[in-house]
Write a structure and sequence with these properties.
about 60% helix, 3 helices
Amino acid sequence: MSLFQKILLLLVIIGGLNWGIYGIWAFDAVGWLFGGSLGWLARAVFILVGLAAIALIPTLFMSKPPEHHEPGAP
């Protein structure tokens, strides 16, 4: 898994946790952390999470993850 995919996955996890918190306690953690749900920073985070989810869709259809070779490994 590339660094880019790891960052995308982290963003999707953040979004999932936020949805879980909202579902259980009706509390928007991202909105609270970044100045309200309608604040520009919170909206930017929401957009990034959505774009990350879209970017990860093709990984659902991969037969196997791409091979990653460590430098110096055979």
